[in-house]
Structures are given as C-alpha cells and as structure tokens.
Amino acid sequence: MSPYIISIRPFGDFAVLVEWPNIVEEQILNDILDFIHHLKTNHLNEKEWEMVPAYNSLALIHRAGKIEYKTFSKELKEWYSQKSGDYAIEKYLWELPVCYEGDFAVDLMEVAEKLGMSPKEIISLHTKHIYTVYGIGFLPGFMYLGGLPQSLEIVRRETPRLKVEQGSVGLAGKQTGIYPQESPGGWNIIGNCPVPLFNKDNENPCFVNVGDKIKFYSITKGEHDLLKLQGEVGIYKLKKTKVDA
After folding, report:
1. Spatial contact of 130 and 93, defined as CB atoms under 8 Å apart
2. Where do the domains of the chain lie?
3. What's the pTM?
C-alpha cells in the first residue's frame, strides 16, 4: 500500500502534475522515484513519456499527443496504489570541489555578516553537510540541493545579477546550488565549482540524477584553475560513491 495521498491536475493539454503532500523530505522524494520506476516498468513507454520529478511532485509529459485527463488520472491513482515500494533506488554521492576565494566568492563576506558568522565558518558549514538533489531545472543541469543547515539559510539578493559566472555556488532560502552555465541569477554567491555539470553532447548530459547526494570540498584558486582545465579537455575524474537507497 502506498504511504501517501496523491493529487493529480492537468498541466496543459499534454501533461499532468502528480503532487504529494507539500513537505520537503527525502521519504517523499523516494516514493516519487519508486513510482517512476513502477510506471516505466509496467505502464508508460519512455519513448512517449517524459517524467520530471522535483521535491514533492512529478510531471508526466506525453510526447505523442493530448491526454484524456479524467481517464488518465484515474489510471494513475490505481497504478500508484499497486506499486510495491520495494524498489532499491540506485543513488550516488558526488564529491564536488569549490573554491571559496576572492572573486569566486563575491557575496561571502556579506553572507557572513548577515548570518553573524565568519567566512571560515560559512565554508566549514557548507562543506560539512551532505545535500540531496531534489530537482534539476531552471537551467540545464542546475541542481536544487536540499539539506542546507538552518544556520546558512538566507534570502535571495534584492537585486539579481544580470550575469552569474558558470560554476558559481550560491545560497538561497533553504537551498544551495551551482550555476551550470553563465546566467542571470539572484542567489548569494559564495564560491565556484570548476567541474562541468552539463554537456549536451554526452549520452547523459547531466551526470547527476534526482535523489543523488552532493558533498562539497574546499580547494584553492590554483587547484580550481587546474581542475577547470582538466574538465575542459575531458580528463577530470568525478568522485562518486554508491550509497544505500
């Protein structure tokens, strides 16, 4: 028996949005991923359907045409009640380098002042915790990372920047994240990750999946430059470890 009551609503003519309780917790995310596995295995053809999980929702997008909402929503609720819940979700812990120095950390001093900490304390807290990938979007490869310690929670910048550098690591609300490419943005920038996060030419353009874990570790400016060069020529080796579901 499935542990949650889900709701379903139209999301345009070609999609529906399945919603779980409005709570950010890993148990709900795992239930969503388990449902995706059940749908792929038993009911929906991946060539015809795009499935986009995020936090407490799942968007199901039909590539082949319009959806008959009443019939499909009834089927989804029936399928959800049938899933076993015993699928072992494959997850990885990815260790990503971040340089918290100089121009890479344009908001670090301001963040430290607002939160009543030193920059070293901000860096220590940010690298100490393990984060969960709750969604990928906004930009291709942009990971929304939950699990930020409460002491690092901070509102977005009042005035967004027109240009945030690729690899910038930011804080906003209860989240941290990395800009995979240059973009406008309003997050508070505290560092920069030299690792390429998205490559459209790869079979899997974004190496991280929703449900994976991220841990940051601090590097110097010199190490950042070296790792960035390795990433650009394709010889950087990502650090990953398989974790229990």
Report:
1. yes
2. 7-82, 92-243
3. 0.90
Sign of CA dihedral 80, 93, 128, 117: negative
Q: Report the C-alpha gap between 181 and 179 in whole angstroms.
A: 5
Residue pair 59/51 in contact by the 8 Å Cβ criterion: yes
Two tokens, residue 118: 């030193």
The strands making up 57-62's β-sheet, listed across from edge to edge, are 7-10, 15-19, 57-62, 49-54
Rounded CA-CA distance 205/163 in Å is 23
- pLDDT by 10s per residue, the chain, length 245: 567 999 999 999 999 999 999 988 999 999 999 999 999 999 999 899 999 999 999 999 999 899 999 999 999 999 999 988 777 788 999 999 999 999 999 999 999 999 999 999 999 999 999 999 999 988 888 999 999 999 999 999 999 999 999 999 999 999 999 999 999 999 999 999 999 988 877 777 788 999 999 999 999 999 999 999 998 888 888 899 998 75
The two tokens of residue 58 are 């799942």
Spell out the CATH class of 7-82.
Answer: alpha beta
| Contact status, residue 193 vs residue 178, Cβ threshold 8 Å | yes
CB 74 within 8 A of CB 194: no
Nearest of 27, 243, 242, 241 to residue 134 by alpha carbon: 27
| β 57-62/15-19 pair status | antiparallel
Homologous superfamily (CATH) of 92-243 is Cyclophilin-like (2.40.100.10)
